[in-house]
Amino acid sequence: MRRFVIAAAATGLLILAGCSSSGSSEPDDGDSAASTTLDVSAAASLKRTFTAIADEFEAQHDGVTVRLSFDGSSTLANQIQQGAPADVFASADEKNMDKLGDLAVDPEVFATNTLVIVTAPGNPRGIRSFADLNKPDVTTVICQSAQPCGAATETVERNTGITVDAASEEQSVSAVLTKVTTGQADAGVVYVTDARGAGDTVATVTDPAFATVVNAYPIAGLTGAKSPELGKQFVDLVLGADGQRILRDAGFGAP
User: Fold this and answer.
1) Residue 32 is labelled as binding a ligand
2) Which residues bind molybdate (predicted)?
């Protein structure tokens, strides 16, 4: 089965991951023509889990390829509104799902997530709290406010009275994480699941203010989907026991 993983960039769509096959050779043109592609647009923070869920879905549906598109939820919602092909949308907040209005069919929350600070391994700048992100020697990056991770950060700012003097505001949580892991920033605010997925490449710092800011993740099939029944089955897998196990293992909270 061939897998496509796509990330939307500011200049267009960039193919990030290519193909793999269960056999020793690529499928021939006849196999490709007979296959069905399911387009799933999902928040960047879902990349690891939805790739695993898509693998499970393909294993259960012979001849079906899941094409995954990951980016900030606001970016994906805008693309869907502009006619980008998608059968299923999974957002990192309810606000961006609500933007789709009647385009989204019966959205359901399937997971929750909270924020955490990530730094270089060993936390060389000695960051201990949300307030420390404004220390003079700390370069901090956060998400754009239009994105769920940025909106959550703004809520923490309001609740604490602390406004982060960020060096940059990124389009997705994965972009924030990349700037920290590549040394372009000393610290960033990301989701707990992204920090967990980064493993030993980052250190984490929590703050009591993060506990009260919880993002709910909804998923929905979309009107006008070319494969609505398959889309419903994918949503059911995410909401079901197998999908929930994958999400819990990655650190997502229950709906």
Assistant:
1) no
2) 45, 73, 173, 191
Q: 171: buried, middle or exposed (CB in 10 Å: 19+, 13-18, 0-12)?
A: buried
Mean pLDDT over residues 100-129, rounded? 98
Confidence of residue 6 (pLDDT cuts 50, 70, 90): low
User: How many Å apart are CA 3 and CA 67, to the nearest integer?
Assistant: 6
Q: What distance in Å separates the CA atoms of residue 95 and residue 109, rounded to the nearest whole number?
A: 12
Place of tokens 């980052």: 202
The whole-angstrom separation of Cα 143 and Cα 164 is: 11
Confirm or reject CATH 3.40.190.10 for domain 36-112+217-250, answering yes or no: yes
Task: Tell whether pTM > 0.90.
Answer: no
Q: What does the pLDDT read at residue 35?
A: 83
Q: What are the structural domain ranges in the chain?
A: 36-112+217-250, 114-210
Cα dihedral 20→90→212→204 (10° resolution): 20
Q: Tell me if 73 is assigned to a ligand binding site.
A: yes
